[in-house]
Amino acid sequence: MGRESVMKEGYVKKGIVIIPTYNEIENIEEITQAIFDLELTLDILIVDDNSPDKTYEKVKELIENRYGDRLHLIVREKKEGLGKAYIEGFKWALAQKKGYDFIIEMDADLSHNPKYLPRFAEEIEHCDLVIGSRYVEGGGATDWPLLRKGISYGGSLYSRLILGVKVMDITGGFKCFRREVLEAIDLDSIMTTGYAFQIEMNYKATLKGFRIVEVPIVFEERLRGNSKMSKKVFVEALGKVIKLRLNKRKILEQG
User: Fold this and answer.
1) Which of 33, 77, 128, 183 has the smallest number of Cβ neighbours within 10 A?
2) Which residues touch 161 (CB under 8 Å, ≥6 apart)?
3) Comparing C-alpha atoms, which of 13, 29, 201, 40 is closest to residue 117?
4) 147 occurs within a structural domain
5) Number of structural domains in the chain
6) Which of 254, 240, 156, 131 is closest to 204 using CA atoms?
7) DSSP class per residue in 15-77
8) How far is CA 42 from the centre of its chain?
């Protein structure tokens, strides 16, 4: 059966924010500054997929001239998908001697507003996984046409029904894990890399019995750069939801 929640009192607030990047040189300085301006004990790890615009060079400059050992960088050889970037970041964070208690994932394009991070840090004291949700009361998205809203909500609804989970924003990528959640999930067994990666991580956390809380966020459309989402990626993700459901028994056996 599923693993019981690792929730415990007296939680130490030491965390790291993992941000995967690919051609985000226009946004990377603003997002890092916004996070470090918060009164939180947070480090940042940028996982860059060898961006043609040399985002990683800007990060190196910020490390050397401004943030020192609070900002970290992994440069991967090539673009291999969001999931693999996050998994490499998770493994790096779990291995550090600093002993990060919680690990946050968010986008670099400012669609995930750092203003919600204090709420994440507060909620993670009482649960195992905090999801920034567009689909609970108070959540939403700005400047989305009706069709895009329908596709996004429909994809989430489809995934929830197929997988039988109660998480409203199962596709959301703005969230905070206690380290024990990531330690309990076999990261090497993750089968998805793109849009479906978020679904798989939320599904596995649910099956293992971790306590999940959704807090409302307003997703903000990026102002600069290009979105990495495409119709092809979205359609492929829907097919992988079926595969996840068929592998339910195997997932339970892994934990």
Assistant:
1) 77
2) none
3) 40
4) yes
5) 1
6) 254
7) EEEEEEESS-TTTHHHHHHHHHTSSS-EEEEEEE---TT-HHHHHHHHIIIIIGGGEEEEE-S
8) 15
Could you tell me the two tokens for 172?
């959301």
Helix (H) or strand (E) holding 252, with range, is helix 248-254
DSSP string, 158-225: HHHHHHT---TTTT---EEEEHHHHHHS-GGG----STHHHHHHHHHHHHTT--EEEEE-EE---SSS
What is the reported pLDDT for 223? Answer: 57
Model pLDDT, residue 188 = 93
Kindly report the number of other CB atoms within 10 A of residue 37's CB atom: 9
Q: Decide: residue 80, CB within 10 A, 0-12 exposed, 13-18 middle, 19+ buried.
A: middle
pLDDT of residue 2: 42
Contacts of 245 (CB under 8 A, 6+ apart): 162, 163, 164
pLDDT at 253: 74
Residue 5, domain member (yes or no): no
Q: Which long-range contacts (CB under 8 A, 24 or more apart) does 187-191 make?
A: 187/87, 187/90, 187/91, 189/254, 190/83, 190/87, 191/240, 191/243, 191/244, 191/247
Structure tokens that stand for 112 in this block = 């995930």
Give Cα separations from 65 to 23, 28, 58, 62, 70 (angstroms).
21, 15, 10, 5, 12
6 lies in a domain?
A: no
Range of the domain at 226: 15-254
The 10 Å Cβ neighbour count of residue 81 is: 17
CATH number for the domain harbouring residue 116: 3.90.550.10
Q: How confident is the model at residue 9 (pLDDT cuts 50, 70, 90)?
A: low
pLDDT above 90 as % of the chain = 69
Tokens of 219: 């997703």
